[in-house]
Fold this protein.
Amino acid sequence: MEAASRVFFAPGFARVNMDDLARELGMSKKTIYRHFPDKRSLLTAVLDRQFAAVERTLVTAAQDTEGQPFDVRVQQFLIAAGSELGRLGAAQLATGRGGDAMLRQHVEQRTDAVVYRRLDELFRDGHRQGLLLAPPELLSEITRGALERLLTSQLPHELNWTAADLLRATVDTVLYGAIRSAPGIDDDQLGAVIPRARDDDEEVGP
């Protein structure tokens, strides 16, 4: 599994085959096939193993920020998630660069279960506390798109920033916005522009 992780998560992994892995391990393909019938089943097992590590990291991040301000909790969660997904290469697979539709679907399902459901709950919690101006569902969709796009972006090279710096800037933009308020504009005026999410129990008439 360690050897498969090194081989499959290296640049150009889509061209890697079982012969490459057998050479890396110093064993015959027949030995590998005793445990895994094909490349897809082996990579799926490797991904599940890596997603388990991602989950442990996110649980630790949540525990470490428990009781801290909401924005700190969101920021640390997103930085941890982005770092783990970047290391895993899940975003590249999920956006179609792996070339295997079944594998992409598996990655999307695991990413949703391990990362985004936790993010959704975090935003819902902020909404219940009255800390969010925008609906939590909208923030979740924006953040998902930003996170996945960032992991495949060329901006770190174009801006001469590290990926970690760019991720932090993206998180700050999502949390606090990119436009400074003009003098004299207060939160009530902003609320007139950004409709506040209705309470879940509020009834909407016909």
Observations:
- The chain has eleven helices and no strands.
